[in-house]
Amino acid sequence: MESVAFIVLSILTVTSAAVVALPFVRNMVVCALALAVNLVSVAGLFFLLSSQFIGFLQVIVYAGAIMVVILFVLMLLSVDDEQHMGSSGFFQRYLGPLLAAGFVAIVGSTLVVSSQATAFPALPDSYGTVGALGRELFTRFFYPFEAISLLLVVAMIGAVLLAKRRL
Amino acid sequence: MPLGPEKFLMLSAVLFTLGVLGVLLRRGAISILMSIELMLNGANLSFITFARQYGQAEGQIYVFFIITLAAAEAALGLAIVIALFRLRESTDVDQLSLFKW
Amino acid sequence: MTELLISPVAITFFQILIVINVLMASVALMTWVERRLSAVIQYRLGPNRVGPFGLFQPLADGIKFMMKQEIVPAHANRAIFILAPALSLIPALCAFAVIPFGPTVELFGRQISLVIVNVDGGILFALAATSLGVYGIVLGGWSSNSKYSLMGGLRASAQMVSYELALALSLIGVLLVSGTLRPVEIVEQQAGWFWNWNVLGGWQPLGFLIFVVAGYAETNRLPFDMPEAESELVAGYHTEYSAMKFSMFFMAEYVNMITASALAVTLFLGGYQLGFPVPFSGWPLWILQILAFVTKVAALLFLFVWVRWTLPRFRYDQLMSLGWKGLFPLALVNVIITAVLVAFDVVQR
Q: So what's the pLDDT on residue A119?
């Protein structure tokens, strides 16, 4: 049952990521939708890995807020379809994908070498629950937590300032 | 087929690579931003896989912070794209070169 | 065979079947309720021809919607145009998966809790489903290739995203008091007399008010329905939609209303708890509790319709300033007050 879910979710993830990344789909709203599908399927993968809180966070924040903001900007600016990749050089067009394929091959070879299928170890019951993460956040990671709230305020002010017509 | 960390890590590598390819091959500014989000997603999946492997909550906390940072970065990146759009009337990065040659 | 039929998977399947059917039937009933209640408020008759008291009016409406011609605008993005209503309806239906509509009953020798899934971050699931419901409206507005639809869609989704903040913050008050996100446990903690419900005994009247107002804004109902008001934007994001796709948007709005009411009932009004102790237990108690849940949801839906036909509509900038400058600070104040009350042990749960 879990492997079926994993196969379905991974196919969905890779296909939607390919639609976003590879320059075959020119319409940017369709790419944004594909990215939203990708984010939700990655959230599904998080649920498979028993990280419930992070899965919900991914859907609420990433797929439900960030992607909506990207869609807003796309629709407000009514951006045209993307142009075909024009006069870019040899390196960008061929060497880049070659190096990328090489990277995936190297990672794949290190992972396939240990070819007996290892399973995940058993977990404590409170793994991935909201309570466990909250406890960690407010004890060990308290300073990063406060720092990131400060960073969010700074980002908010910065975004408003950058997008204003006249300061 | 028991699920193991190798499969998830392979998937995370593929996601990251696709993100890098998107940054290299795409021409619209917002598409490049979306490819950056893909890279962040690949890294998130890797963190969660290792957190699951060792049973500790640290990896999940890192992903929590990465998601928050991605939100801030997307907001700022889109504000920059809006400002550039007002200047150049297009989000094509090939036209965003101020040095003409 | 019988083991397969009463296995947990089959029980969940039957629960899903029952819940979706009841939801769809309630949506049809809600359209009738809305038209009759608005007639009562406006001192006229309302539909009373089709069937007794006009009760078959939703059936007639459904047949009309199925028979109408489906028009897709000329330069619209066809795939997204057809996808958008479904994207609006499906998250609305999914959000109902974490709402407990009854106690733990004993059936076929098993303990079945009348909730589809009791996951640890239960209320977060409902929030996630509401966040995904924005997509249908944004895409419906954009794919119609019409300026009214685009403006309506953008305004509606900006409004929904803004009021989601106040909604989530009002939930934090309940979370602080209950100490858990599982909806079944939140309802179990509100057992006993009705002053034990979260709105009174959990010191959450302000939270309840914020939740209800944000719920009105989330479901695009008056007084927050500027994005789809007839006199303002023709019909907003569903201007270009006809027949079945329009009725799917319609259904999605009513299902959102029912989900918002059910969430408010679960979190603040004691869920399926009766509000007074009864001497018996077993089957009569369980039936009474399910009826109590339905009654409370119906009362909140009555409030939805009543407010719609009583109050005038907010202008869009008034709406956004209410959300950001009014409800959001108020929700923060509610969190602080609740935190102080919990820290000094005023609330015992």
A: 76
- In whole angstroms, give the CA distance from residue C245 to residue B89: 35
The full set of domain ranges for chain A reads: 1-81, 132-167
Tally of structural domains, chain B: 1
Q: Per-residue pLDDT for A76 more than 70?
A: yes
The per-residue pLDDT for C54 is 86
Give this complex's ipTM.
Answer: 0.92
On chain B, the residues whose CB falls within 8 A of the CB of A23 are 25-27
CATH of domain A1-81: 1.20.120.1200
What pLDDT does residue C339 have? 93
Q: Find the domain containing B76 and state its range.
A: 5-89
CA distance B100 to chain A (A): 15
pLDDT tens, position by position, A20-43? 998 888 889 999 999 999 999 999
Stretch A119-130: mean pLDDT: 81
Q: Distance between CA C23 and CA C92 in Å, rounded? A: 11
Q: Is C129 helix (H, G, I), strand (E, B) or coil?
A: helix
CATH code (residue B84): 1.10.287.3510
Give C199→chain A minimum CA distance, Å: 24
Touching partners of C (3+ C-beta pairs < 8 Å): A
Nearest chain C residue to A64, by CA: C131
Q: Do chains A and B touch (3 or more CB pairs under 8 A)?
A: yes
Q: What's the pLDDT tens digit per position in B46-70?
A: 999 999 988 888 999 999 999 999 9
**Dihedral (Cα; C221, C223, C224, C225), 10-degree rounding:** 60
H helices of chain A, in order, are 2-21, 28-48, 52-57, 67-77, 90, 96-113, 130-139, 142-163
% of chain C surpassing 70 pLDDT:
98
Rounded to 5 degrees, φ, ψ at B15 are -60, -45
Can you tell me which residue has the tokens 């305004």? C155
Look up the pTM and report it.
0.91
Surface of B (40-79) touching A: CB under 8 A:
41, 44-45, 48-49, 51-53, 55, 57-58, 60-61, 63-65, 67-76, 78-79
Residue A53 distance to chain B (closest CA, Å): 9
